[in-house]
Amino acid sequence: MKNNTGVENIGENNSGYGNSGYGNSGYGNSTERESGIFNSTQGTIRMFNKPTDKKWDEINHPHFNEFYLTKWISENEMTDEEKKADPEFHVRQGYLKKFKYKEAWTNFWKDTDEENRKKFLALPNFSWSVFTSITGIEPSSANTPNIIDLNGKKYKLIED
User: Fold this and answer.
1) What are the tens digits of pLDDT across the range 67-78?
2) Are 115 and 60 in contact (CB under 8 A)?
3) Model's pTM, two decimal places?
4) 125-135 mean pLDDT
5) DSSP 57-116
6) Which of 132, 19, 146, 119 is nearest to 63 (CA)?
7) Which helix (H) or strand (E) holds 111?
C-alpha cells in the first residue's frame, strides 16, 4: 500500500476512493490500470481521443526519461545572460531552470532517441493534431520522414 492518494485505497499507485490493485483511479475498481467506477477487469485504453482494442501491457510504450519541467544548469553550462540575471549563481554553482510545458516537450523530443520517437508514432490511433495540441511539436519540426520503418515494416504517416 504505497503511493496511494485519496481514501481507503489498497495496492499501489491508486487514487480516488476504495480502489484495490495497481494504478487505478476513480472509485471501487479492483483490477489494474483502470479508471472509472466499479471495474473488476482491465479494459482497453483510449489513445488520442479514441478507443483502442489494446490493454495497457499490450502496447510498446515510449519512455519519458528526458522529459523535465525543471533542470539543473551548472555554472559552466550557464549563458552570460543567465549569469547576469542571477548574480548569486556562483554560490549555488548553477541554477534550477524552469521550462513551460510545451517547451519541456520540445526539449524532450530533441533529446530522446529516434527509436523512442518511433514508439510515439506507432502508438494506436496516433494523431499529429492531438499530439501537437498537447505537446506543441509539429510534424515539420519533428524531423521524422513521411515513411518510417518499424520492425521491418514501412508505415506512411498521415496527418489528420
Assistant:
1) 999 999 999 999
2) no
3) 0.71
4) 94
5) GGS-PPP-TT--SEEEEEGGG--HHHHHH-TTHHHHTEEEEE--HHHHHHHHHHHS-HHH
6) 119
7) helix 101-111
